[in-house]
Batch of 2 targets.
Target 1
Amino acid sequence: MDTMRERFAAVTSQLLDEDPRLAVVLAEIGMDGFTGAARRHPDRVVNVGIREQLMIGVGGGLALTGMRPVVHTFAAFLVERPFEQVKLDFGHQGTGGVLVSAGASHDWPAGGYTHMSPGDVALLDTLDGWTVHVPGHPEEAEALLRRAAGAGNDKVYVRLSLQSNQAPQPVNGAGFLTVRQGSPGAPVVVAVGPLLDNVRTGTEGLDVTLLYATTVRPFDAAALRAAVAGPTADVVLVEPYLAGTSTAAVNEALADVPHRVLALGTGRKELRRYGEPHEHIAAHGLDPASLRSSVTAFTGG
């Protein structure tokens, strides 16, 4: 199976052939995936070099001319380093584009903390109007990328990961899916993107309703409310980025329902040993055994 990032390069190269409005902006990273597309469309595959702020500025400038820019690099260099440009060149200017990240929380531990960005979605949450997709499988990544590229003037962030679920779900960018239905009033577990398999394994045999989220902004409040069948609610959030990123969205969705929230995700403490991705997943309590322990302790079994 190809990775989400490999699928991104293949799909976006195809879309460049089909849509003259599309342009790709890179800062060296990822350029190898667009070698053929750059030969076919030298004016619409732009490599600015190792200048991430300029990369965002070029994307915003292309959007002002009516183009649909797709901007790609590691999340730390796409969201954190040029955040002011994201805020101004897209938000303040009223333009749209597609930011596609790789790396994110702990996909490449050997790169160290400079190449990790567990707070990317939380940071974008400080801005208005961003749609955020977090696919859990290359097939889902393709569907969400095609949706994002074809949007009119929307601001879209697509967060790709090396971690992937075994099988894709029929996502369309419109809300959460119900993967497992618990009894009336059962706790609701919201699994985001590539953590679905770990959550599904970790909660096997437990009486919970399991929702799957690949589009986390806007947050599907209606699906969460529909899953809550009792006068009170226990909600467990399992996110592959900073723990608690969506807690405020849950609280807003259930403002009139007495509820508790357990927020699981990447912790704030920096893990200074490189290790491997699966070791970081376990260290943050996102492996199946740790998830089961956390959920049962929170819900009382």
Target 2
Amino acid sequence: MHTASIQQNILAELDLELASTRRILERVPYDTQADWKPHPKSMTLAQLAAHVVNLLAFNTLFVQHESRDFLDPNAPKPGPRPTSLEELLARFDDYSAQLRQALHETDDEKLTHNFRLHRGEHTIVERTKGAAIRIMGLNHSIHHRGQLTVYLRLLDVPVPGLYGPSADEQGSF
């Protein structure tokens, strides 16, 4: 019996989640509702959609580096907020390709090394790279993707199914 490696498991899960995330992002009414938010404390639609996309770059950071210091002015940062849905989707495709490439270039042994997220000397979290990708990367992205589906629902935008048909694909409940 062959057991899939850590790398293979992450890549398989990533492919599934990226396809679902792209379907959600494609529905974002970016050009007409970018500044909409459901509550004063919430992110705008554009901020939330960009955050979901930018988390892919954070995942690549987990794979390729040993740490990230939020106080480091030279640390990589995402580009400016996309100005259109096309720009958002282009960034999503670019960051997805970069993450897949980084994962293909790593191996299970490297994924067991620790990644430290910190602010100066204060450690925010330290986990193996594989766990960081799953917990701080994929799970975090899935959480915000879920928020994005609520935004779409509140804006009366049909929500695509993620792990099965959505209410929009089945009719109403």
